[in-house]
């Protein structure tokens, strides 16, 4: 799900875009619960009334923040996957390369979806579907890429897809925690080793 037609989105005016940009910076840097609409309005140079007129609620601002970030990530990743040969094992390391580049520019605190889920675990929250939908999309992507690897049967490909997803997500968390240097590059190396082992059987 995440950015599907089932998710309610709003039309963006210039003022709403400014507010969303401010909210995105604040939510990512400080946390969703720590940031109120007064601060978002002040950072965006709009009134609180304008925020509520445009978004309706803080919950909807959170939805727009996460959905916007998800859409930008998917577009960013698509460009890099398009540059890799189609239906080749090179597309799997390309995902890790894309994540490493994205984190360098957009992710000093790790994955925004993982961070948001730490604050929003209630499935009834409208942003919850964005978070879980984005992660399901990543699992589906890794599974599709694994199924394109020559010589892997469906069961082995599905297992590899899940393992690649775990490697990728663990690397994003480690990046945010700064546990050790360049965890995404390390995860990429491990992914390539997994691919090599899987195709040698």
Key words describing this protein structure:
mainly alpha; single chain; 9 helices; 201 residues; 0% strand; 72% helix; disordered N terminus; elongated
Describe this structure in words.
- The chain has helices at 14-30, 37-44, 48-55, 58-83, 91-106, 112-119, 128-147, 154-177, 183-200.
- The chain is mostly helical and 201 residues long.
- The radius of gyration is 18 Å and the shape is elongated.
- Helix 1 (14-30) crosses helix 4, helix 6 (112-119) crosses helix 7 (128-147) and helix 7 packs across helix 8 (154-177).
Order of H and E elements: HHHHHHHHH
Radius of gyration: 18 Å
Number of strands: 0
Major sheet description: none
Count of alpha/pi helices: 9
Which range does the strand content fall in?
under 5%
Please estimate the helix content.
over 70%
> Structural class, from secondary structure content?
mainly alpha
Low-confidence runs of at least 5 consecutive residues: 1-5
Anisotropy-based shape:
elongated
**Alpha carbon gap, first and last residue:** 35 Å
Quick structural summary:
This protein is mainly α and 201 residues long.
Set down the secondary structure blueprint:
Elements: H1 14-30, H2 37-44, H3 48-55, H4 58-83, H5 91-106, H6 112-119, H7 128-147, H8 154-177, H9 183-200
Helix pairs in contact: 1-2, 1-4, 4-5, 4-7, 5-9, 6-7, 7-8, 8-9
């Amino acid at each position: 799900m995440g950015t599907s037609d089932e998710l309610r989105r709003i039309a963006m005016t210039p003022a709403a875009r400014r507010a969303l940009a401010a909210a995105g910076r604040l939510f990512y840097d400080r946390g969703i619960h720590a940031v109120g609409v007064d601060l978002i309005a002040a950072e965006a140079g709009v009134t609180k009334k304008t925020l509520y007129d445009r978004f309706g609620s803080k919950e909807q601002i959170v939805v727009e923040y996460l959905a916007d970030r998800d859409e930008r990530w998917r577009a960013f990743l698509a460009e890099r996957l398009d540059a890799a040969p189609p239906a080749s094992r090179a597309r799997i390391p390309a995902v890790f390369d894309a994540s490493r580049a994205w984190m360098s520019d957009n992710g000093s605190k790790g994955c925004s979806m993982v961070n948001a889920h730490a604050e929003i675990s209630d499935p009834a929250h409208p942003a919850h579907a964005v978070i879980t939908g984005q992660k399901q999309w990543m699992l589906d992507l890794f599974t599709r890429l694994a199924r394109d690897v020559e010589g892997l049967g469906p069961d082995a490909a599905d297992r590899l897809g899940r393992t690649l997803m775990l490697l990728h997500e663990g690397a994003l968390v480690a990046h945010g925690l700064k546990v050790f240097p360049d965890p995404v590059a390390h995860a990429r190396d491990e992914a390539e080793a997994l691919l090599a082992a899987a195709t040698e059987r």
